[in-house]
Amino acid sequence: MATNMGMNTPIWNARRTPSLAPSSTNPAVANVLMVRARPTAVAGTPRSFTIPLIDTLKALNDSLTGMAPAGSLLWDKLRRSTTSGPRTSDLENDPAGSCRPSADLVDWSAMTTYEELFENNRRWVGESLARDPEHFVRLAEGQTPKFLFIGCSDSRVPADQITGTSAGEMLVHRNIANLVIYTDMNLMSVLQFAVEELKVEHIIVCGHYSCGGVRAAMDGHHHGLIDKWLRNIKDVYRLHRSELDAIADADQRSRRLVELNVEEQVFKVCSTSIVQRAWQHEERALHVHGWVYEIAEGLIRDLQVDPAGTTFEGAAGLYDYDDLG
Length: 325
Ligand SMILES: [Zn+2]
Prior knowledge:
Layout: H1 11-15, H2 53-64, H3 73-82, H4 88-91, H5 114-131, H6 135-140, E1 147-152, H7 159-163, E2 170-175, H8 185-197, E3 202-208, H9 212-218, H10 226-239, H11 241-245, H12 250-270, H13 273-281, E4 287-294, E5 299-302
Parallel strand pairs: 1-2, 1-3, 3-4
Antiparallel strand pairs: 4-5
Helix pairs in contact: 9-10
This protein binds zinc ion.
């Protein structure tokens, strides 16, 4: 350790900047909970479907219009294959029903078709040009975002919509359960680019309640390849096991793990040489924040994570680098 950075005076203390006050962004736009029911059918019949495409679409259409017989196996298969969140078997172990929106909350009439994506795009271009004829030309010249948003891949957590930001304002990286994994070259490359090249001023780790990834990490079931990813969430649970095990209600326990997971990922962001180098050698401030998004309300909550304070007691100095060039 450097002489001016003993184990009790981590670099985080020296250059830590306070977290922002609870978000002052626009009131979050309420998300319409939608289930995508035609993810691949137009592009081609998925190999796993052995029935002809036309039959698939017809049955799907019948189902959407209420004509399908109750309990249709096909419909059930499609529904399960196209909804986010855990499998039905997992939902049966989720009495609180918080893994995903219930069928009653799904707005089928708002479902966007594949073709409508292009129609929507052309309309959006027209509207954007009507407001500002140079909008896209200016965007093409480059980007200077102030924010890096690390969030969950969940379709119900659109970073730009919930923060009221426009194209060019926020660099976004998303993965299942907003994890910061040191060997994830994807995220680490984004982080380096954001901090060293774009020189963002704020890094935001944003989790969300009702996170299917977090719930899946808690249910004890084997989910396949993704288990290796979810194991990182189990590690967070282990770090806080006494607190979490003491929460009897499964939904409340899940919500708390969502928060603790965000805190841990903030910690990991701060412990990278990328961020610490910026704190040591850059005059500008670099803030790191932990947020949780409440899907059921549309609101963001700032967890006020303090990387150098009590949040990570026991880690002081342990992750500091004293010889960053
Ligand atoms: Zn999630």
